[in-house]
Amino acid sequence: MSTLLEMLGCRYPLLHDLGMKGLHLLLALPHAIRAAGEGVDGLVVSGSESGGLRSMGSESSTMVLVPLVADHVKIPVVAAGGIADRRGYRAALALGAQGVQIGTRFIASEEAPAPQVWKEAILACGDGGTTMVPLNMKMRVIPNKKLVDLAADPTVDLSQEYNLMNAPKGWMSGDFDLFPAGAGQAASLIREIKPVKAIIDEMVS
């Protein structure tokens, strides 16, 4: 391994001593400025469209956050969030990114080890088809009937109903009652399951 992606602390001098490079995943400009000052080699800038764990605070979209960070640092920027096809890829480069991080689009690929029910949930996800689950951190997911029913009850504390530690087990088993399927807003752009090579070739063509 020559590159490490992290978001928990600043260990870049140690990585450099080992001959490695470090990328820092961030959700806001102050995080980018701090990481750049600590010697990180590149930044993965995750806009509010992204799936997975999110901040409990207000967040900026990829369209806003990527150029904002690019204007304030002099190291490579990787855009993440809402990118699923050639249009998103080209837009990210135009915003000042040197590359992109892709999540949801690759879950819905032939090679992904995700269960078929997860891939099909992504294909069925339309505009507005994801939501935030407020736990100790927010998580962007595709709501199922259990989540919709729980969220409709004002007396229910979702942080007591879902344990973040169960997310990997729920996702990889397809048991979305244990934890709802994770996905970013780009899910609404995905219409078929393709080989990874076909996804990349289309994106960079």
Radius of gyration: 18 Å
CATH hierarchy class name of the largest domain: Alpha Beta
What would you call the structural class? alpha/beta
What fraction of residues sit in β-strands? Answer: 15-25%
Could you give a short account of the major beta sheet? 5 strands, parallel
CATH architecture of the largest domain: Alpha-Beta Barrel
Percent range for helical residues?
25-40%
Tell me the number of helical segments per DSSP (H or I, 4 or more residues long).
10
Instruction: Report, as a whole number of angstroms, the end-to-end distance.
Output: 28 Å
The CATH homology group name of the largest domain: Aldolase class I
Total number of beta strands: 9
In short:
The chain is 36% helix and 18% strand. The protein is of the alpha/beta class and 205 residues long.
Structure description:
About 35% of the residues lie in helices and about 20% in strands. By secondary structure, the protein is of the alpha/beta class. The chain has two domains: about 5-105, TIM Barrel; about 110-190, no CATH class. A five-stranded parallel sheet has the order 1-2-3-5-6. Strands 4, 7, 8 and 9 form a four-stranded antiparallel sheet that branches. β1 (about 5), α1 (about 10-15) and β2 (about 20-25) form a beta-alpha-beta unit. The longest helix has 11 residues, at about 60-70. The radius of gyration is 18 Å and the shape is globular. The chain starts with a strand and ends with a helix.
